[in-house]
Every structure is written in C-alpha cells, then in structure tokens.
Amino acid sequence: MFTIDAHLDLSMNALEWNRDLTRPLAEINGREQGLSDKPDRGRATVSLPELRKSNIGLVVATQIARFVAPENPLPGWHSPEQAWAQTQGQLAWYKAMEDRGEMTQVNDLASLEQHLTLWKDDSPNEKKRIGYILSLEGADSIVHVDYLQQAYESGLRAIGPAHYGPGRYAQGTDATGKLRPGAYELLAEIERLNIILDATHLCDDSFWDALGHFNGHIWASHNNCRALVNHNRQFSDEQIKALIARGAVIGAALDAWMMVPNWKRGISTPKEMNCNLEVMIDHIDHICQLAGNANHVGIGSDLDGAFGREQCPYDLESIADLDKVPHLFEKRGYSKTDIENLMHGNWIRFLRKAWA
Questions:
Q1: What does DSSP assign to residue 77?
Q2: 19-53: burial string, b at 16+ Cβ within 10 Å, e else
C-alpha cells in the first residue's frame, strides 16, 4: 500500500552519520561495523531503496541544527549562523539527490498531485523518485525572521519551533516555559507564508502558547500518547483533542522509549520490553478513540532519528517492514478506508487543504 512517512532525518544521516542512502541497507550497515561514535552504528533501518521496497513514496524530510548557549549541555552549534549553514548543507544534499534522480521536492498542490500520479502507475518502484516535503525540526537556525522567506523559496513547507531543551524561539522536550522573544513574529511569518506548524517537541507551556497565537495549518509529524508513556515528550489527551479540533494529523513515532514505559537508554532491549509494531497501533488507536474516527492519525516513524534496530520495534528490521502495518490495523477491526487513511490518506487530505 502507498505509504507516507511524515518524519525522516535523511539529510542528517547523510551528512552527520556519513551514510550514502542511495546504497542497499546491508551495505550501509556493513560499512559501519566496528564504529562506535554513534549508538546505532551498523543498525540503520532507513535507505532510499528500503523506502521503495514497501511503497513509501512520499516523506516529510528534515533539516535540523540546534543552537546551544554556553550553559546548554546539549550538542549543537554555537551561533545561529552556524546552525543556518548546517541546514543549508543539508538542503544541498537533497538537491544533489534530485540531480541524481533519487528524490523530488513536493512543495505545492501541483507537485503533490503529479507525484501521487507517478506512484499510482505500474512501473517498478526502483525507477521512481522518492518525494520529499522539506521540514525544519527546531527553528534555532532561523537567524532572524527574514530568513524564513529565503527558506520558503528553497522549498520549506513545515517547521517545528523547538526540538530538545531550550530553543531560541520556543521551549522543547524536557524544558518548560512559554514561547521566547521573537516567537510571535516568527509564528506570524509562518502563517503568512502558509508554512505548516509542527507541534512536535513543544513543551506544554509553549504548545498552548503557540496554539493561541497561530491560525494556520498545524500537524504533529511524530508524536505519541502520554496516556501510554508518561513523559513530557508525548502529548496529553487534552493536547491531542486540541490538535484534533484544529484538523491536525498526528504521526506515530517508532522510537522505543516513546512507545513503551520505563525504557532505559542503552540498557533496555525491544524484545525484553515487548516493543513491537502492535505497540505503535496502541498509540494510534488511542488517538482514534479520542477523535471518534481514524481521520487524524498517520505514521511519522523517525526511524533514522539517531537510533536503529537497538531502539525500535523488534519485528522491524528495516523501514520496509512498515508494510506489515495494514494487516495489524485490519486485525484491530479497522476498515479498508480507515487503513488507507492511516497509511497515506490523512496526510494527503491535510496537504490538499493546506495547499489548495
């Protein structure tokens, strides 16, 4: 079934992990044997050939670069200008993938419909480009608001104001507090340019502050449920209901610590924690029950977000295993229409409305 993944850090993996994502997954992992500089070395699950294997023809692909103040212990860049430059290098990689015939940017209604038509035909997937919608995860690299126009002209169509910790414009995961100076101006420019606001990673205070000052289109590309895993990274039922009321779609993430409670990084294993794809269905089903329908959920796997097989469902060897998901939903009693909406339809409906 045609599938949309609303959150992949492809360019980060290409540049910071030094992975040639055009190569087979086995080759990527084989080349990393013996390396220990990243926790997921040799255990990657994402490559462009793997996307094609299971009909994942459209993704929301990120740029990401955090600014960190001197007192911030998180990794990141020491100035917003450095962070901006990093995102421009990531953009250059996407453009190189376009030049190579591997990917194509989807940034308006016409390019969306053209791309969907391409993936409906019967030609082999190996010959099809992966479509990508450009998203910025964390707004720290927007040096000042005027930079957003330049980013839009380069294809940026979604932005999350925060990532982990305190950001320049908003407070993210594990931080607290409302939006920071300059954020309201940023939100106004996001709305003017019709860029999608990604609520993922906003701490509770910044989440409610952002919703109260933004009237444009909102989604949550990769976020799970606090009712199932009690951590500020997840959304409370109240937050989920607020997003549903705004017409949002929420993508389920496949990072094990977000899926099952009491995960210990570097210690827990997916098998011992009983973390499998059924758990992802639990999170999606919880949102469906709150909504009273299956119109606000999708997949935002984050499968290349600095983790690999050591920290994802044990019944997933590669992102191609997302083709198991429709059957799991069918077992839960979801209809064919519901399943199509879960795998791609909700994201497509959202984009058609946003870009109409």
A1: B
A2: bebbeebeebbeebeeeeebebbbbbbbbbbbbbb
- Determine how many CB atoms are found less than 10 A away from the CB of residue 326: 17
Rg of the Cα atoms in the chain: 19
Which three-class secondary structure state does DSSP give residue 156?
Answer: strand
The pLDDT of residue 122 is 87
Which runs of consecutive H residues, i.e. helices, occur in 109-161?
Answer: 109-120, 147-153
With residue 190 as reference, give the H or E element that holds it: helix 183-192
Per-residue model confidence as pLDDT tens digits over 266-291: 999 999 999 999 999 999 999 999 99
Q: What residues form DSSP beta bridges with 159? A: 136, 197
pLDDT band at residue 184 using 50, 70 and 90 as cut-offs: very high
pTM over 0.85: yes
The rounded distance, in Å, linking the Cα atoms of 252 and 302 is 9
pLDDT tens per residue, range 294-323:
999 999 999 999 999 999 999 999 999 999
The contacts of residue 343 (CB under 8 Å, 6+ apart) are: 1, 2, 3, 4, 298, 299, 325, 326
Give which of 251, 257, 242 is closest to 222, Cα–Cα. Answer: 251
Tokens of residue 214, six digits: 């933004």
